[in-house]
């Protein structure tokens, strides 16, 4: 097995985690990585902060460059190489060298598909106008940054009120650009419940973001020079010098589908817990692949850096002859908008309701740190439990400094199958600069007991 | 039972939590609380921040005043009343009214002892000098504050490098008072391992605290007017205008012992998991009582506000006819010194070694938040596991902003019996402003796998 060739499609989190794990386990194995973009192992999640001017250089977002993989880890990493076709039968991929335009076939003994996910950009008038961006590859972040430097936009419109949407709204504020945000949903952050999302909405409005919910993007109007002029919704027209589309992502699973590999949840590549696809010796990991959800016990598609890294690690172990299972996800996520911190894990109330689960939800508002300590601000914690067993199945936090990372306590409790009472019983850390004596998470749990 | 009288000795966290719980369960029951000090339900943990000038008024440290308990909760709360004797046989206590000097007997059907703990102050020359303080009752914190306002001390000596010691060192710095700290131990913070404590030592020195370890307090020299002049150790003499003794605490269990009630760990009042003492209808809760340790499965004495509140809640449930057990402790604690955050839970490596456990410990140093995000600073996480099962038994964190509350994840994992691999597998929250993609806690766990 040590002499068998591993080909990896995609050189970011999942692909390079897996390749690195294989390299450590099998120092002599041949490893070839094809990455269509210019960069490897970069922090896509860092792009809004780079655009906002908080990160000095795009280089800081790159954990490891292609030449380092080549020189230090003896991997044949080729950027600007796009895989056009997977031939499962003959165990080979057809690759295009994007710079030279030529194509060639590369054989493999194991193939890892780590093609990521792509931002959803509806086909409509003006969508390709100069100044309209999605965020995907690191290059897209650099492009936005460069555009701001050059064009000095005064007004931005962000389409979509999810993670990218609020992070980019913050970035624009950092750059002194006036921001409007539209979303067709009746709430911000649809991964949270409406009551929690409303707290974010209020704060964003307070911070001078013009938020328009239940408004659908209809078209983008352009100036004579082809640059964006305004965003037209079903209700109004918003002037815009720059537009960010943060309308969600779809897994890059077309290559796999065309090769006859089975797709799963949300058309992500179907995998078992070992990250094996339906084709022999073909693995998939990261944003292009589905994941097992620990609460619903079903496959879901969750495109997050944490998941991609864990996928990559598990795939790498299995590809190099080990045997491990991907542990599953809770969809734990965290972000911030200016001073407001936001996090969620497990099932929201509306997800539990949609799944017709017998659940109970409680929300508390307290303060963090201790009320008398400087900087104490409101924190709201919502917990969802299975009504019968009282086991935690989800949690959401909206608060300020030091609030949202508490979601980890909830995620750990859900994973371990703890009940609300067991959360109340936890010996959590207290000191006035950090918390109230009953941590807000425990206050919420007490409401459920 | 509703008409039976409950007498509570001690009006702080444990006593008033219990009394409040009983009141909610039994609206008509007679409840009498004797508190020797001037205040009820105050945050002893907040005193260093009050002294440091971060809290506007001592009133902010008080969660609920005696008159509120009297008026809103119909409790007979009497401050400045000291219980002198417990008569278990005749179910009564002898009480002294400290203002009027008279004594009387009060009968009870249930008695809750919540007398707290007292700072250790060795009997030695000068220990009662003007300007030498311990922190116990809220009044002691007010006294220190008032002394600083009046005497304007230029130099402080803190005896003891534990929580009180480092928090008071910070308070003095906030007040622009030069601080020296002495401890007879070879390390700061003996609840942590020496390697972790050294990080704190280095930082404190950097922040201009003169720290002297392995130095024993010998005597305190006084001026002609009876105020403190200097602190003499076995190695040197340190000039001092104010001295804080933070040399640990001992449980206030003498009353109980004299009444024939069994003492337990560290001479704390012995209790079962229901918080019952060896005497019928006599309960104990808070800093005066022992607690069940979840890892060692033995009784220990841990004087912390979180434990006192949980003790009080459990005792209140049981006293009012319910049936619950105190869930046990891990000794989870957190504090900070200036920008450095410090936390611990479960067993330290040296505790595991002392218990002759077969353990494994690993320490990692990473950054938090993401390395490229503004404000990223070092974080060090140490985890201890049982070597055979790889189950977590302890953790320690030393880092900067947003670091130390991660101890809650570790405490939750220990309580749930998770292994290092299960911690690696947790779906914890990541975004650049909060964390690296593998949380530092998981990085430490990966070292153990």
UniProtKB/TrEMBL annotation, chains A, B:
Keyword Flavoprotein: yes
Oxidoreductase keyword on record: yes
Required co-factors: FAD
InterPro entries on file: FAD-bd_OxRdtase (IPR050260), FAD/NAD-bd_sf (IPR036188), FAD/NAD-binding_dom (IPR023753), FAD/NAD-linked_Rdtase_dimer_sf (IPR016156), Pyr_nucl-diS_OxRdtase_dimer (IPR004099)
Pfam families found in the cross-reference section: Pyr_redox_2, Pyr_redox_dim
Domain Pyridine nucleotide-disulphide oxidoreductase dimerisation: 333-436
UniProt GO molecular function: oxidoreductase activity
Family statement: Belongs to the class-III pyridine nucleotide-disulfide oxidoreductase family.
Record-given protein name: Pyridine nucleotide-disulfide oxidoreductase
């Amino acid at each position: 097995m040590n002499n068998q060739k591993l080909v990896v499609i995609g050189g970011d989190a999942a692909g390079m985690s897996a390749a690195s794990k294989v390299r450590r386990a099998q120092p002599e194995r041949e490893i070839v990585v094809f990455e269509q973009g210019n960069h490897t192992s970069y922090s896509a999640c860092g792009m809004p902060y780079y655009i906002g001017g908080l990160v000095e250089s795009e280089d800081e977002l790159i954990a490891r460059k292609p030449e380092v993989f080549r020189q230090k880890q003896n991997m044949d990493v080729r950027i600007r190489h796009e895989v056009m076709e997977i031939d499962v039968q003959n165990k080979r991929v057809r690759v295009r060298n994007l710079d030279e335009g030529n194509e060639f076939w590369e054989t493999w003994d194991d193939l890892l598909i780590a093609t990521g996910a792509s931002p959803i950009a509806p086909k409509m008038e003006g969508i390709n106008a100069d100044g309209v961006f999605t965020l995907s590859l690191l290059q897209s972040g650099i492009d936005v940054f460069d555009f701001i430097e050059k064009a000095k936009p005064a007004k931005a419109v962000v389409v979509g009120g999810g993670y990218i949407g609020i992070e980019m709204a913050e970035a624009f504020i950092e750059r002194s650009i006036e921001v409007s945000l539209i979303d067709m949903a009746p709430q911000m952050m649809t991964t949270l419940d409406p009551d929690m999302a409303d707290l974010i909405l209020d704060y964003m409005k307070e911070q001078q973001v013009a938020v328009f919910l239940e408004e659908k993007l209809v078209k983008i109007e352009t100036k004579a020079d082809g640059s964006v002029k305004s965003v037209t919704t079903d209700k109004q027209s918003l002037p815009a010098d720059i537009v960010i589309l943060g309308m969600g992502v779809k897994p890059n699973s077309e290559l796999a589908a065309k090769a006859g590999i089975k797709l799963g949840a949300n058309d992500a590549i179907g995998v078992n817990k070992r990250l094996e696809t339906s084709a022999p010796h073909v693995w998939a990991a990261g944003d292009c692949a589905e994941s097992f959800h620990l609460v619903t016990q079903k496959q879901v598609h969750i495109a997050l850096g944490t998941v991609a890294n864990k996928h990559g690690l598990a795939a790498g172990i299995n590809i190099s002859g080990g045997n491990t299972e991907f542990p599953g996800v809770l969809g734990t996520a965290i972000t911030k908008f200016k001073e407001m911190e936001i996090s969620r894990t497990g099932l929201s109330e509306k997800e539990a309701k949609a799944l017709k689960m017998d659940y109970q939800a409680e929300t508390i508002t307290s303060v963090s740190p201790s009320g008398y300590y400087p900087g104490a601000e409101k924190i709201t914690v919502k917990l969802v439990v299975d009504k019968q067993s009282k086991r935690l199945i989800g949690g959401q936090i909206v608060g300020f400094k030091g609030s949202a990372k508490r979601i980890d306590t909830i995620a750990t409790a859900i994973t371990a199958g703890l009940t609300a009472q067991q959360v109340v019983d936890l010996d959590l850390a207290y000191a006035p600069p950090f918390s109230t004596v009953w941590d807000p998470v425990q206050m919420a749990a007490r409401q459920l007991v």
